[in-house]
Amino acid sequence: MTRNVLVIGLGLIGGSIALSCQKAPDTKVFGYDYNEKTRAQAAKLKIVHEVVDDVLKAASMADIIIFGTPVNATIEWLEQLKKWPLKKNVIVTDTGSTKGLIMEKGAELRECGITFIGGHPMAGSHKSGVQAAKAHLFENAYYMLTPLHNEKEDNINALEQLLKFTLAKLVRVDAHEHDHMTAVVSHFPHLVAASLVHQLDAEQKRYPMTSLLAAGGFRDITRIASSNPLMWKDIVLQNREELLSQLNLWLAEMNRVKSLLIGLDQSAIEEYFATAKEVRDQLPISTGVFYSTYDLYVDIPDYPGVISELTGYLAEEKISITNIRVVEAREDLFGILVISFQNADDRDKAEKCISKKTNYEMYVS
Ligand SMILES: NC(=O)c1ccc[n+]([C@@H]2O[C@H](COP(=O)([O-])OP(=O)(O)OC[C@H]3O[C@@H](n4cnc5c(N)ncnc54)[C@H](O)[C@@H]3O)[C@@H](O)[C@H]2O)c1
Ligand SMILES: O=C(O)C(=O)C[C@]1(C(=O)O)C=C[C@@H](O)C=C1
């Protein structure tokens, strides 16, 4: 029997889930977005099997409904859902970055006989919109499910059976613990990134050259300040309490830094950086596709055409690359070309391909 899946909200996350659900056998994926342009783009990009205009009708046929909407919009949809004529065994889930308030709605849905299991894939990007959707966005990332207490195991299994096609690591987490932990590793860092950009903005009014000097360090730490403002407005409002307590911890931490600077204690300052480096270097890699890189470093001679020559060899063998950049290219030195691939297999193939055609030295990080 065909399983009908309806995805509401076809942006980066909803679109990516819809693409991965299309890989599930005997599954028909329908999609709805309140933005007409997005619906048209989703149809053109084949993000779903069928884009629908009548969301209520599609919902009444759905076995699984997935919300890819901003978290405040999800709350509004869940309220409406209570009155809809849904299938008796329908399973409703979401992808929102916050879980506390959404699970309160989930509990209300249970009172109406509707199964709601919260979900949150811990991968994404500062990019948004349907054009950024990718089938493999969640590969290897943690995908948290926050079922209500006493949720039927069969319901959770049924949802997991579909979500396993995201190739994410599915884990079950309590909704409140979820909101605490994501405040630490995601929500609060977004506030810090935005605040650093505000600080730069104020500074460059007095020293206009400052922004020209924003190189790797500033760009790395503030990439996420380019994220969707509406989405983040919703997230920080829903997780306000946790964020206020993170902010207090941060202020205390900044006071510690202040004391270190005032105290001029060289070894304590070095220790501060050393401990941070140790913890940072040991972070496990569990991101989705955007920021897990499989890089191949190629020492290339610095002559015009060398990059197109190399990419040409890879194209001949149909090896796709996700990014390419040159580092340390100087006239008198070999440059290093860093080629990124989607997976280790593609990188291995590329290494073999390049070693057949050239004598350039290569290494992987
Ligand atoms: N961006 C990330 O890195 C990331 C990662 C994990 C989870 N999330 C969560 O996923 C959800 C979607 O985020 P995104 O990054 O895909 O955002 P997005 O802006 O790319 O997509 C949201 C989509 O929802 C549509 N939409 C907005 N309001 C709607 C409504 N009321 N009804 C129907 N459609 C509506 C928009 O038109 C858009 O197409 C959010 O809840 C977010 O918290 C985001
Ligand atoms: O990589 C990014 O740009 C993200 O911000 C992704 C990110 C994160 O903070 O890690 C953002 C929000 C999500 O709920 C999950 C993942």
UniProtKB/TrEMBL annotation:
<dbReference type="InterPro" id="IPR046826">
    <property type="entry name" value="PDH_N"/>
</dbReference>
<dbReference type="Pfam" id="PF02153">
    <property type="entry name" value="PDH_N"/>
</dbReference>
<dbReference type="GO" id="GO:0070403">
    <property type="term" value="F:NAD+ binding"/>
</dbReference>
<dbReference type="InterPro" id="IPR003099">
    <property type="entry name" value="Prephen_DH"/>
</dbReference>
<feature type="domain" description="ACT">
    <location>
        <begin position="295"/>
        <end position="365"/>
    </location>
</feature>
<comment type="pathway">
    <text>Amino-acid biosynthesis; L-tyrosine biosynthesis; (4-hydroxyphenyl)pyruvate from prephenate (NAD(+) route): step 1/1.</text>
</comment>
<dbReference type="GO" id="GO:0004665">
    <property type="term" value="F:prephenate dehydrogenase (NADP+) activity"/>
</dbReference>
<protein>
    <recommendedName>
        <fullName>Prephenate dehydrogenase</fullName>
        <ecNumber>1.3.1.12</ecNumber>
    </recommendedName>
</protein>
<keyword id="KW-0057">Aromatic amino acid biosynthesis</keyword>
<dbReference type="InterPro" id="IPR046825">
    <property type="entry name" value="PDH_C"/>
</dbReference>
<keyword id="KW-0560">Oxidoreductase</keyword>
<keyword id="KW-0028">Amino-acid biosynthesis</keyword>
<dbReference type="GO" id="GO:0008977">
    <property type="term" value="F:prephenate dehydrogenase (NAD+) activity"/>
</dbReference>
<dbReference type="InterPro" id="IPR045865">
    <property type="entry name" value="ACT-like_dom_sf"/>
</dbReference>
<keyword id="KW-0827">Tyrosine biosynthesis</keyword>
<dbReference type="InterPro" id="IPR008927">
    <property type="entry name" value="6-PGluconate_DH-like_C_sf"/>
</dbReference>
<keyword id="KW-0520">NAD</keyword>
<dbReference type="Pfam" id="PF20463">
    <property type="entry name" value="PDH_C"/>
</dbReference>
<comment type="similarity">
    <text>Belongs to the prephenate/arogenate dehydrogenase family.</text>
</comment>
<dbReference type="InterPro" id="IPR036291">
    <property type="entry name" value="NAD(P)-bd_dom_sf"/>
</dbReference>
<dbReference type="InterPro" id="IPR002912">
    <property type="entry name" value="ACT_dom"/>
</dbReference>
<feature type="domain" description="Prephenate/arogenate dehydrogenase">
    <location>
        <begin position="3"/>
        <end position="291"/>
    </location>
</feature>
<dbReference type="InterPro" id="IPR050812">
    <property type="entry name" value="Preph/Arog_dehydrog"/>
</dbReference>
<dbReference type="GO" id="GO:0006571">
    <property type="term" value="P:tyrosine biosynthetic process"/>
</dbReference>
